[in-house]
Structures are given as C-alpha cells and as structure tokens.
Write a structure and sequence with these properties.
By secondary structure, this protein is an all-alpha fold. The chain is built from eight helices and no strands. It is globular.
C-alpha cells in the first residue's frame, strides 16, 4: 500500500510539473511549484513511513521549509521587485499541447529504462522512479522552451525536485545532511539566479531571452 501511494503521488508530481511549464504567468507557475513541493513532501513522508527510514522524515521537514516556503517566497519577491513586469506573460516557444506530449514521451522513455534496471526500488516503485528521472528532462524542456528568463528558473527547480525523489527512492537511509546540503545549494542557486534576473530587468526592462542576445561590457 505504501509504494502504491508513492506511485500515485509520483503521478501528481508530473502533473504539477507540466502545469508549471505551461503556466502563462509567473504567479501561476509559483503556485503550481508550491503545490508540487507539497506533493514532494508527501512522497518523502510516505517513503519514510513505508521503509521505516527516519531520515526521510527529516528530509520531508527540510523540503517543506525550503521548497514549499522559501523558494516560492524568493521567486515571488523577485517578481514583485520588478513591479509585476508586463512581459511576465511571455509565451513559450513550444505550444502547451506539444509540451504535454513531449512530457509524456519523456516519462515513457524513462519508464522503459527503469523497467530494465535490476534494483529493488525499480520493482515496487517503477512509475515513481521513472517520473523522478523524467523530471530532469522536463526541467530541461522548461529551460529551453521558455522565453521568459524568470520562468527558466523553474526548470532548474523541477530538475532539483526530481533529484530529491530519485535519491529518496534509491537511498532512503542516506544521512539527512546530504539532503540538507542539496537543499541549501538549491536555495542559494535560486537566490543568485533571481538576483541576476532582477538586475537584467533593471537594465533592459525586458525578460525576453530573445532580447538578450548581445553582451555589453
């Protein structure tokens, strides 16, 4: 029952990731990322209770603070510092329908790979493990397809969430200091990237990556 719930939550992870990518506005993307982070906490809690790994319970607490609270706060603060810029609604280079199809293809490929792995986790949590792997490609899709440079930060965040689930599934008893280290790196990365985006906005009044093709000294 425990791993079945993990797989169901894994399905919700890919749904929320897709919503982050196809969201038309930054506030909407932030909301969906926060929802995904709540689902991630649920995955960690369920795995911790299922495997008896108390380390995962600490991971869940850390993920709640960093991903549900801090990352959305940092991104929302950066957005508001720019005065809710008009081009925050920049359209993606890829239509939402194609994004959904591409995401499904990425999950299918990862599922095919996972079914060929001889790992205990791959036998009981195949969907969740495949989805955690697919998050790397979904995040990469977000970075490549989005014209909005603030929206591109979400691609990194999705990739990082996927790495958390992968680590939790493959090494549930890993010391919590590892998860804290990963989460700390992610927080600082988001802070730095957000600060760079704000600086670009202040200098160019644009968040369109198509307008940022020329380097100036």
């Amino acid at each position: 029952m425990g791993y079945s719930l993990v797989n169901i939550l894994g399905g919700l992870l890919i749904v929320t990731s897709t919503m982050v990518v196809v969201s038309k506005t930054i506030p909407s993307a932030i909301k969906w990322y926060a929802i995904q982070s709540v689902v991630l906490v649920g995955v960690l809690l369920t795995l911790g209770l299922t495997t008896g790994a108390t380390e995962l319970l600490m991971w869940a607490a850390s993920a709640f603070v960093t991903k549900v609270i801090l990352v959305p706060f940092i991104l929302n603060r950066a957005y508001k510092k720019m005065g809710s810029p008009a081009d925050s609604t920049l359209t993606s280079s890829v239509k939402p329908a194609w994004t959904i199809i591409l995401t499904g293809l990425e999950v299918a490929i990862c599922f095919a790979v996972v079914t060929r792995l001889s790992l205990p986790t791959a036998e009981v949590a195949t969907p969740a493990l495949a989805i955690s792997f697919a998050h790397f490609f979904v995040g990469l899709t977000c970075i490549i397809s989005q014209r909005n440079i603030l929206k591109q930060i979400f691609g990194y965040c999705l990739m990082e969430n996927g790495s958390h689930v992968t680590l939790a599934l493959l090494a549930p008893t890993a010391p919590e200091i590892i998860e804290i280290g990963i989460a700390t790196d992610a927080i600082f990365a988001v802070i730095i990237m957000s600060a760079v985006v704000v600086r670009i906005w202040n200098d160019t009044k644009s968040l369109d990556s198509h307008d940022l093709t020329e380097l100036k000294g």
